[in-house]
Q: What sequence folds into this?
């Protein structure tokens, strides 16, 4: 009996993993068109400039341990027509994307970058929200667009009470393995301040 239960759990994990990989490949393929538009289209270049400005200077704030974090209590429409983006960029009182009570009552906590945050989609489409009914457990989302692997662990350390005695999921995407470091991240962030 126990062997059958273990096999079913592993089968579910395998199905979720394969589905995740396929979804990532699909998302990566869909981003080719906006990149071409940006390279050839002035309007797209202007929209990307405005998008970066919003992301770095309206939706983020400096953070001593994390370099930057999201501004708390955001609820702003984020639209870039040439990139087919139109969603609500929202955060809770701590700058993460959670519903009321998620952080406190969750059994599962996710950390990551834009993939975990759910950049480009509304709350109901974020993978942590879709996971909850499938496993019948509440999940909290501690993802921040632009974060790197070292920042995932820094979030866990900084907000440790919300991670104790919970299952921690790392939302890892291929760009997490680009070889960035804390120093490079800080330099890139500071360099953009002069640009904007």
A:
């Amino acid at each position: 009996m126990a062997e059958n239960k273990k096999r079913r759990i592993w089968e579910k994990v395998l199905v979720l993993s394969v589905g995740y990989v396929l979804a990532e490949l699909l998302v990566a393929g869909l981003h080719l068109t906006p990149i071409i538009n940006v390279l050839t289209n002035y309007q797209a270049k202007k929209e990307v400039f405005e998008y970066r400005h919003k992301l770095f200077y309206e939706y983020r704030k400096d953070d001593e341990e994390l370099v930057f974090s999201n501004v708390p209590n955001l609820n702003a429409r984020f639209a870039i027509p040439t990139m087919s983006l139109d969603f609500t960029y929202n955060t809770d009182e701590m700058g993460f994307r959670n519903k009321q009570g998620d952080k406190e009552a969750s059994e599962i906590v996710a950390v990551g970058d834009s993939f975990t945050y759910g950049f480009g989609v509304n709350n109901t489409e974020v993978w942590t929200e879709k996971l909850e009914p499938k496993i019948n457990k509440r999940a909290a989302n501690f993802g921040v667009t632009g974060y790197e692997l070292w920042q995932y662990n820094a979030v866990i350390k900084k907000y440790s009470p919300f991670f104790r005695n919970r299952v921690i999921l790392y939302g890892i995407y291929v760009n997490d393995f680009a070889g960035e470091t804390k120093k490079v991240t800080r330099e890139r962030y500071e360099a953009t301040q002069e640009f904007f």
About this structure: The chain has a mean pLDDT of 81. The radius of gyration is 18 Å. Residues 13 and 189 are 36 Å apart (CA to CA).
